[in-house]
Model the fold of this input.
Amino acid sequence: MSTASLVYPHPVPTSLTQPFWDGCREHKLVMQQCTACNRMRFYPCEGCPHCRSTEYRWTEVSGRGSLYSWIVVHRSVDPVWQAKAPFVTGIVELEEGKGVLVPGIILGVAPDAVRADMKVQVEFEQTDAETTVPRWRVVPG
Done:
């Protein structure tokens, strides 16, 4: 199969997650922020995992963070991802708060050079006509 014909798997937004994906399409990283305890959270959910409030607002965040954890993918059952192997996927802890963890592909670093606490900045990739996803680029510092 030619890599030119491969299509990324894409998310299927729900009414709960649609504001996150709308933000990505506008190249903005938005998170739910509890209006009761003021803490950020990700993944989007109906209730705050910290105080149980069901009240929240969508807030744009800096898109800066540090690499919390990662894996290097060498083999994938999905042909799109196999064509890109090896690649790094990781969990980023946002500057906005300890424990605000967001997954994604890590760009700008060789798989064997990845280290904990590397600084990253979000960037966005349009993967099809409807979908824009966050990626994480390693930045100096």
